[in-house]
Design brief:
The protein has three domains: 153 residues, Glutamyl-tRNA reductase, N-terminal domain (Beta Polymerase, domain 2, 2-Layer Sandwich); 141 residues, Rossmann fold, CATH 3.40.50; 108 residues, no CATH class. It has 16 helices and ten strands. It has a six-stranded parallel beta sheet, with helices on both faces. It has a four-stranded antiparallel beta sheet with strand order 2-3-1-4, with helices on both faces. Helix 1 crosses helix 3. This is Glutamyl-tRNA reductase. Its EC number is 1.2.1.70. It holds the Pfam family GlutR_dimer.
C-alpha cells in the first residue's frame, strides 16, 4: 500500500498562498482527472477546505509521485515546485495513515476537535469515487479514517464546547465588538458553512437572522431549517444595512464584499459592523477591514489567534488514533497475505484434481465409491499439510516486515496474484 499525502494548510502557509491553491467545487473533477493522469499516481482524493488543501494518493513511486503532485499544486499557485515545496507537508505510508486518522479526528484542525472535517472528508472521498479516481487503497484508508473520527468524537469530549471555525471566529469578534445577543445577523452563502453559521448565530442569540445566496432556492431551504429570513441576493446592499453581524462563507472565486459596498452600508446604517469572512478564497476584499466602524475577522487572523495547547481530551484522542493506526496496519498485513493463501490453496486443489484425473485413467476398474473415497482422503491430506503453514504465515504477516513471508510463498510456488479495484458502489462499506 503505497500511500502518499501532500498538503498545504494554515500551519505551513499564509492565506494568500492557500487562496491560490484551493480548488472550488466546480474545478475538483478536472483536478482529480489531472492527478490520476500523472505517471506515478494511481488513485487520488483531494480535500479542499477553508484552511487546507490535501491530496491523498495511491502511488507507484514516492519521488515520482511527489514531483507529479507538487507540479499540479505549484501550477495552481502560479509558482514553481521549488518555491512551493517549503510550504508543503508530506506523509508516506504509516505516516500517511496516521495523518488521515488525525485529520478525521479533528486533531489537525485550526480549531482542535471541530467535527465539520468529517463531513468534508466524506464529501471529498464521495467526489473522488464518483469521478473514478478512488479505488481499493483509498477506499480502505478513508473509510477507516471516517470510522476513527467518529470514534474519537464518541469516546472523548474533544468537541465538548461545540467548537468550530464559526464559533471560534464569532468568539473572537465578540471580544472586539461585544455580544451578538439580540443583534441582527446576515449569512452570505447557503452551503455547509452557511448552515453552521446560522446555527451558531442562533445559539448566540443573534436575531433576526437573514440568509442570502445566489441560488434563492437553497437560501429559502436553509432559512426554513434555521428559523431565518431568506433575502434575494440582488438586495445584498440593503441586507448589509440591516445587519450588525455578517458571516460570509461562499465558494465564490472573487470577493463578494468590497470596500465600496460595505462602506456605503455602514454609512447608511450608522452603526458598527462585525464581518466574519470564513471563505477561501476570501469573500471580503482588501481594504474592507480598514473602514471606520468595521471589525473584520478572517481565516488569517483566526489562525494566528487560536491556541493549540494539548489537554487531556486531546491526549485521549491521540491515544485512540495511535491504537487505530496499529490495528489498521495489522489488518492491512493480514489482508495483503489473504490472496496469497487463497492462491496457494487453489494451486493445491489444481494439483489434486490433476492427479485424481490421472488415477481415473490408470485404474478404470475403480468404482465411483472408491474414487470418491480416494479423492476425500487426498484432499484431507493436502488440507492438513497446508493448515499449519497458512495459519503461521497469517500470524507472521501481521507483524512488521510480514509482507516478506507472503512474498516468499509467491516465489516458492510461482503464485500469480490478480489485482482488483474496489467497486465505487461499495463506498459506504466500513471494514472492521
Amino acid at each position: 500500500m503505497n500511500l502518499l499525502v501532500v498538503g498545504i494548510s494554515h500551519r505551513t502557509a499564509g492565506v494568500p498562498l492557500l487562496e491560490r491553491v484551493t480548488v472550488p467545487g466546480g474545478q475538483l473533477a478536472a483536478v482529480l482527472a489531472d492527478l490520476v493522469a500523472q505517471p506515478y499516481v494511481d488513485e487520488a482524493v483531494m480535500l479542499s477546505t477553508c484552511n487546507r488543501v490535501e491530496i491523498y494518493a495511491s502511488v507507484t513511486a514516492f519521488h515520482g509521485a511527489l514531483a507529479d503532485i507538487g507540479g499540479i499544486l505549484a501550477a495552481r499557485a502560479g509558482t514553481t515546485v521549488g518555491e512551493l515545496a517549503p510550504q508543503l507537508y508530506v506523509h508516506y505510508e504509516v505516516d500517511a495513515i496516521r495523518h488521515a486518522f488525525r485529520v478525521a479526528a479533528g486533531l489537525d484542525s485550526m480549531v482542535v476537535g471541530e467535527a465539520q472535517i468529517l463531513g468534508q472528508l466524506r464529501d471529498a472521498y464521495g467526489t473522488a469515487a464518483e469521478q473514478g479516481t478512488a479505488g481499493r487503497v483509498l477506499h480502505e484508508l478513508l473509510q477507516q479514517a471516517l470510522r476513527v473520527g467518529k470514534r474519537v468524537h464518541a469516546e472523548t469530549e474533544i468537541d465538548r464546547a461545540g467548537q468550530s471555525v464559526v464559533s471560534a471566529a464569532l468568539a473572537y469578534g465578540q471580544g472586539a465588538t461585544g455580544p451578538v445577543d439580540g443583534r441582527p445577523a446576515l449569512v452570505i452563502g447557503a452551503g455547509a458553512m452557511g448552515a453552521l453559521s446560522l446555527a451558531t448565530l442562533r445559539r448566540a442569540g443573534a436575531s433576526p437572522l437573514y440568509v442570502t445566496n445566489r441560488s434563492a432556492e437553497r437560501a429559502e431551504r436553509l432559512a426554513e431549517l434555521h428559523g431565518a429570513i431568506a433575502v434575494p441576493y440582488a438586495t445584498l446592499p440593503t441586507a448589509l444595512e440591516q445587519a450588525d453581524v455578517v458571516v460570509s462563507a461562499t465558494a465564490s472565486p472573487e470577493p463578494v464584499l468590497d470596500a465600496a459596498l460595505v462602506g456605503a452600508a455602514v454609512s447608511a446604517a450608522a452603526h458598527p459592523l462585525l464581518i466574519l469572512d470564513l471563505a477561501l478564497p476570501r469573500d471580503v476584499a482588501h481594504g474592507v477591514g480598514d473602514l471606520p466602524g468595521v471589525t473584520l475577522v478572517d481565516i488569517e487572523l483566526l489562525s494566528e489567534s487560536l491556541s493549540t495547547t494539548a489537554d487531556a481530551e486531546q491526549r485521549a484522542a491521540e491515544d485512540i488514533v495511535a491504537g487505530e493506526v496499529e490495528a489498521f496496519l495489522t489488518w492491512l498485513r493480514g489482508a495483503d497475505v489473504a490472496p496469497t493463501v487463497a492462491a496457494l490453496r487453489a494451486r493445491a486443489d489444481e494439483v489434486v484434481e490433476a492427479e485424481l484425473g490421472r488415477l481415473a485413467q490408470r485404474c478404470p476398474e475403480l468404482t465411483d465409491g472408491h474414487r470418491a473415497e480416494v479423492a476425500h482422503s487426498v484432499h484431507r491430506i493436502v488440507q492438513r499439510l497446508l493448515h499449519q503453514p497458512t495459519v503461521r504465515v497469517r500470524q507472521l504477516a501481521a507483524e512488521p516486515g510480514g509482507e516478506a513471508y507472503a512474498q516468499a510463498l509467491r516465489e516458492l510456488f510461482d503464485l500469480q496474484i490478480p489485482t482488483k479495484d474496489i467497486d465505487p458502489a461499495a463506498a459506504g462499506e466500513v471494514h472492521p
